[in-house]
Design a protein that fits this description.
single chain; 221 residues; mainly alpha; two-stranded antiparallel ribbon; 11 helices; globular
Length: 221
């Protein structure tokens, strides 16, 4: 991507590092504040069109620090750890500047979603982070339920299926603004991986077809 290379050449040295450490740390602080002191803080962090209309512009940034509302500290710690691990893995693979751009594009998708539907969240942003992680590290194993080792690529396929089901439901029920917001939220993934995704899927399908043909030939002997 020539545009990204040009931006990196000009601004790459100024790119903030360890962005996900800031995001994860902000979520921890927000979760503790919400659970222990002021539950109304959660609403103040959200990205809403009504809030922006009242010039509450901090919402353009603070929504990424909006934590899960689970009251179980273990579940919350696991969620934050996964977000941090995925983000730092992508930053190590790409470098700070490219990762920051990817994350910012995801945030911009949430801003567009907010304008379309009145509300923006981090759901599509985290979808895009996980899809990128699954694309780059398909054979890495995660312990599902702390017990079952599962390759990331299979979790990626499951997440992709859930995403498509959600998108299909929105289209079938004519919730077109919400559907558009869901697609726009994946702008970063589509921009970074879209050009090569079709070719990769075709090559994998061709490889599976050749493998089946080879197996059928040996069975027929």
């Amino acid at each position: 991507m020539k545009w990204l290379a040009k931006l990196q050449y000009r601004y790459g040295r100024r790119a903030p590092k360890n962005l996900m450490l800031v995001v994860a740390g902000g979520q921890i602080v927000a979760w503790l504040a919400i659970m222990l002191f002021y539950g109304g803080l959660y609403e103040k962090l959200q990205l809403t069109r009504a809030g922006l209309a009242h010039l509450e512009l901090w919402r353009l940034v603070t929504f990424v620090f909006s934590p899960s509302l689970t009251t179980n500290p273990l579940f919350f710690a696991l969620e934050v750890y996964l977000i941090y691990m995925i983000g730092t893995s992508l930053e190590r693979a790409w470098g700070a500047f490219t990762f920051d751009v990817y994350f910012l594009i995801g945030m911009a998708g949430a801003w567009v979603a907010c304008l379309l539907t009145g509300y923006g969240s981090t759901s599509s942003l985290y979808y895009s982070l996980f899809f990128a992680f699954a694309w780059l590290y398909p054979d890495m194993q995660l312990l599902l339920f702390f017990v079952l080792p599962v390759k990331v690529k299979w979790l990626g396929w499951i997440a992709g299926a859930l995403y498509l089901v959600n998108l299909g439901f929105l289209l079938l029920t004519f919730q077109l603004a919400q559907a558009a917001a869901l697609v726009v939220g994946l702008a970063g993934f589509l921009l970074f991986f879209g050009p090569g995704a079709v070719g990769r899927l075709r090559s994998e399908a061709a490889a599976r077809r050749r493998r089946r043909e080879w197996q059928n030939q040996w069975r027929g002997r």
